Inverse folding.
């Protein structure tokens, strides 16, 4: 007996994202496709416009917003969209399968570039894995060991040249789910072209003072190749395959914010957020493990690796308004801080859209 | 262009529940269908057996378990199953639709009892809403106002007599999602027969002492008709349609644990859990709004409404072991406390199954 219609209803629980083109950092007007029409309010615009870059002064000038009207969460929904682009294009990808496990997704256009490498990639005509194209991508059966697969795929990636830019010589593990058997390792920059899941650790550093909570925010160096000059929470980093989440976090705490192990070992894992972002041939499937670190009042973070320009301590209510009213934050940091806002009681069930926003923080393949 | 195969992969992210029959409170052996075969460990049994009832002494005798082996989370997965029974039978239900919105699900066997009431319920032959049976359930178009619908459905429920036992004369709102337009109100006991979503507020009361966290647990009165003598967290209650979550929680805090408003108003909303439980004609779709209340060290809860026999303060690590190793807790309390364990860092990403368990806390229609 088939239950397809119920599966469909489950999938409908995910937000129905629309096509979205990322924009330069600016203060946004509010209008969310997540609110039903009768809930929508007039879109608002603000007098501050930061253009392509902004200063801490701009950050602290972000206006207050009404916290309890029906459109209060629309700015948060906008930031979820920013991380989950073009989801309707998932049907342009075919499953990438190893040993009967779906470990990623390959765009049919990108597949055309892989097809000449017949000793590495093969494309069986078989919709066992539900491909819209009646085929899937897999590795040649001669490549039976992780080592063989890693080398063979690395050679193809190298051969593709500028089709996959930004090679970092950093290997990411490839598995069907976190903690599962690793089939091979893949260059980090190539992972989204094969729809491989990537994992990271993200930490909010906070303190309590006079009954109010504050978050330490970083402003990224203008020299960073990704998201230069934008806001970050205190510590974040991708998770390579040779280190645990907890140990990676302690390492990143030291490098990014000068937090010694004596403090960082008290950081608490508090859950995870996830998203799926499609851009051209790339399907970025990210899971971010979230951590909270309660910092002592006297602690001042200092960057050790040149990736952060400066830090500021900001009241959590102000941080919430920055997320809602601007695009100052590096896109995925919005999700991690919104998760913090939920867990610390700053977003309340009385506000329309509470459950939908909570659920959408794990829009991706959280596995 | 269809994206069905991707929808399928989304639905596969939900745990693949197997048929489960609830058992009397006892200490369980460990074996989880969620762990892949290579991850499974030998099932273990313990010498304590509580039978149909148990005392606080039994609770405190629950043995320690290894926290970090590969099967560490299997006891938690068992409790998720306890709340999400017979999910494969969702296909025996048809959508219940009002004004183009799916607001519930009706079992095809139960529908046979509704069909004689042709002025109230109609069953169009149309699979617009994806019904496996090529039909759906809706109300007669003459019933166009909430008041008319409430009265007409109440009369049918009354006519069905013992088919719907346990009438409480308590009305629940019927909407497609929380905070959305209310189509009518329905007797609480009848809600699962129409697959209507129900909402509740559940609160963990905790305190910190010498760097360790403790939870206040309640033991339900042996006179309760549901889950007599079982463990509860500190405060919980269903959400009627005429009160907000926050106000309902304050009311329940007073009635269930004697917590005055001066303390309970500091309780923080921290998210939600959800589940779907099928039993016969009933599809119970629950969403529980979770709250944390940090209590002062000197506070002792006392029950005001006779529903709780007694309270004890229990170290959180012990509570985690009670969940993992016993079925002492009222079923849905396991989910709310497991959510607490995640948010407070007691379950770590290094343990196999972390993301799957986290995701499964919202197995239901969290909307």
């Amino acid at each position: 007996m088939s239950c397809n219609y119920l599966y469909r209803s489950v999938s409908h629980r995910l937000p129905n994202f629309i096509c979205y083109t990322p924009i330069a950092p600016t203060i946004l007007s509010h209008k969310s496709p997540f609110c039903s029409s009768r809930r929508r309010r007039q879109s608002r615009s603000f007098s501050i416009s930061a253009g392509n870059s902004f200063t801490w002064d701009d950050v602290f000038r972000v206006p207050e917003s009404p916290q309890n009207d029906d459109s209060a969460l629309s700015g948060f929904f906008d930031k979820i969209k920013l991380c989950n682009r073009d989801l309707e294009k998932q049907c342009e990808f075919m499953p990438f399968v190893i040993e009967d496990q779906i470990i990623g997704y390959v765009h049919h256009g990108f597949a055309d570039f892989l097809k000449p490498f017949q000793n590495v990639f093969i494309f069986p005509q078989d919709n066992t894995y539900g491909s819209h194209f009646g085929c899937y991508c897999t590795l040649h059966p001669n490549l039976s060991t992780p080592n063989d697969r890693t080398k063979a795929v690395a050679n193809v990636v190298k051969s593709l040249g500028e089709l996959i830019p930004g090679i970092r010589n950093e290997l990411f593990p490839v598995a069907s789910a976190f903690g599962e058997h690793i089939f091979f390792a893949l260059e980090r920059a190539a992972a989204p072209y094969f729809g491989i899941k990537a994992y990271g650790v993200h930490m909010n550093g906070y303190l309590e003072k006079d009954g109010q909570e504050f978050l330490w925010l970083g402003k990224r160096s203008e020299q960073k190749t990704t998201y230069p000059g934008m806001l970050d929470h205190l510590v974040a980093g991708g998770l390579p395959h040779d280190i645990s989440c907890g140990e990676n976090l302690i390492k990143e705490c030291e490098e990014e914010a000068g937090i010694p192990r004596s403090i960082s070992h008290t950081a608490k894992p508090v859950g995870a957020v996830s998203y799926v972002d499609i851009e051209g041939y790339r399907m970025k499937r990210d899971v971010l493990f979230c951590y909270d670190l309660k910092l002592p009042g006297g602690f001042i973070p200092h960057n050790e690796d040149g990736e952060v320009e400066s830090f500021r301590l900001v009241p959590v209510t102000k941080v919430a308004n920055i997320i809602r009213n601007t695009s100052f934050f590096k896109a995925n940091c919005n999700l991690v801080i919104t998760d913090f806002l939920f867990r610390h009681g700053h977003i309340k069930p009385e506000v329309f859209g509470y459950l939908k926003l909570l659920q959408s923080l794990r829009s991706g393949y959280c596995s």
In short: Chain A has two domains: 93-193, 198-360.
